[in-house]
UniProtKB/TrEMBL annotation:
InterPro entries associated with the record: MFS (IPR011701), MFS_dom (IPR020846), MFS_Efflux_Transporters (IPR050189), MFS_trans_sf (IPR036259)
Origin species: Ramlibacter henchirensis
SUPFAM superfamilies, per the entry: MFS general substrate transporter (SSF103473)
Lineage: Bacteria, Pseudomonadati, Pseudomonadota, Betaproteobacteria, Burkholderiales
Keywords: Cell membrane, Membrane, Transmembrane, Transmembrane helix
Membrane-spanning intervals of the chain: 27-46, 66-84, 96-115, 121-142, 154-173, 185-204, 236-257, 269-290, 302-320, 326-350, 362-381, 393-415
Membrane topology: Multi-pass membrane protein
Protein name, UniProt field: MFS transporter
């Protein structure tokens, strides 16, 4: 049976988008095709936390270098977001993600062949560029292909798939590296990413650009940047959610080793626990979101309720110091997932023709935040150490700065007027 999106592929440019909803079976197939690629995107993103004990002595990395190496991925990721949004709106998810994944394959190969820190960093940036469409492409497609409740569910379950990838980057990588080495591991990732490209080319439907809203400039981000709701959500995405990803994908590992006293294998097990907790949390959000949407519980209300828990847990980690291990870090990451609901809400606050740009612009905010927070925490740790602080005190000080930034972001969110609120229903095409 042909998919509904396939039937509209040759529809007139002015046709309404109501005929593009996928059937249940079609939606599942498309979701799984994208999820396969996003799994490897998340694995590549998080693997530096597990490889940090291996790469640090081999390349003589400092905390600053390690933060820059991990952040390089997010720099490459963020650098593509603005053109990516335009390309998604114009050419559609399928063509765009296939082009970008080819770059990811080259990045994995380059990383496996690197013999110096600059080469590692350049390859890491290339990997970030290559996988930068792995979440935005499906979310842009879901904006047109799925109902609002299904969009919220699909977003959470894509993030759950990312947690699967992060799980694979912990204990499985820790077990594989002594057997095959970290360089062959990246050759394997290159091959599997190429396989994901084949699945997307086979199963994801084509695309027809939606008509632009009246009064919009073609390809412009002006309507996105000046939207009050977008601006209201920006600090939360940058500091709170970006900071959580920075901890999850890099600094959780060094915290467990250098502050809590874990051995490297125990640290990998701790990262496994953290990512398993995130997987379960995103699965739960996926189950709850359609129900909450039907009950009128909107994103703003959930964030207002949930972020204080994030702040309390983060404050507890700063105060506990060495006593805060994997369980505390898992609770911190789980408590931050309230902010993940902002991403699909931002996408649905704009017309379908602007969805790619709105989602990519907000993703740019998040991943610029990840880059700044990953590198910034490393700079703070080294800076406090240069002032004579102990390793434990330096890490606690860096996390305290993160806490202050996150608290200020929440205050900005609360200061937004009721005119800046949105609900989870999409704007009209």
């Amino acid at each position: 049976m042909s998919r509904p999106a396939d039937r509209t592929a040759t529809a007139p440019a002015g046709a309404a988008l109501a005929d593009t909803l996928l059937s249940r079976r079609g939606a599942i197939v498309v979701f799984l095709a994208f999820a396969f690629a996003y799994f490897f995107s998340a694995l590549v993103r998080a693997v530096t936390a597990t490889l940090a004990p291996t790469l640090t002595p081999e390349f003589g990395l400092t905390a600053r270098d390690l933060g820059l190496l991990a952040g390089g991925y997010f720099f490459g990721f963020a650098a593509t977001q603005l053109p990516l949004g335009n390309w998604l709106d114009r050419h559609g998810p399928k063509k765009v993600i296939l082009a970008f994944l080819l770059i990811a394959v080259l990045g994995c190969v380059a990383f496996s062949m690197a013999t110096s820190f600059p080469a590692l960093l350049a390859a890491r940036v290339l990997c970030g560029v290559g996988v930068s469409a792995c979440l935005m492409a499906p979310l842009t497609g879901f904006r047109r292909w799925l109902t609002p409740g299904a969009q919220l569910r699909a977003n959470s379950w894509m993030l759950m798939t990312g947690s699967f990838g992060m799980l694979a980057s912990t204990l499985p990588v820790q077990w594989l590296v002594p057997v095959v080495g970290w360089r062959p591991l990246f050759w394997g990732l290159a091959v599997l990413t190429a396989l994901a490209m084949a699945v997307i080319a086979w199963r994801v439907p084509g695309w027809q650009a939606a008509p632009a809203p009246t009064g919009s400039s073609k390809g412009s981000y002006a309507e996105v940047w000046r939207n009050p709701y977008f601006r209201r959500m920006t600090p939360l995405g940058f500091f709170t959610y970006g900071g959580m990803i920075a901890v999850q994908t890099l600094w959780a590992g060094p915290w467990m080793v250098r502050v809590a006293g874990y051995e490297p294998v125990a640290s990998a097990a701790g990262l496994f626990t953290i990512n398993l907790a995130m997987l379960v949390t995103f699965w739960t959000w996926g189950m709850l979101n359609p129900y909450l949407a039907r009950r009128g519980v909107d994103t703003d209300r959930l964030i207002a309720w949930g972020v204080p828990w994030h702040l309390l847990v983060l404050a507890g980690i700063v105060l506990a110091g060495p006593a805060a291990g994997a369980a505390a870090l898992a609770l911190f990451c789980m408590s931050t997932t309230f902010v993940s609901l902002a991403q699909p809400a931002v996408g649905m606050a704009f017309p379908a023709a602007l969805a790619g740009r709105a989602l990519s612009a907000y993703n740019l905010v998040i991943f610029l935040g990840v880059f700044v927070m990953q590198w910034g925490i490393g700079l703070l740790v080294d800076g406090f150490g240069a002032m004579g602080w102990s390793v434990v005190a330096s890490f606690r000080g860096a996390m305290a700065v993160f806490l202050a930034c996150s608290a200020a972001s929440y205050a900005w969110f609360l200061m937004g007027s009721r005119d800046n609120r949105t609900d989870p229903r999409p704007a009209s095409p």
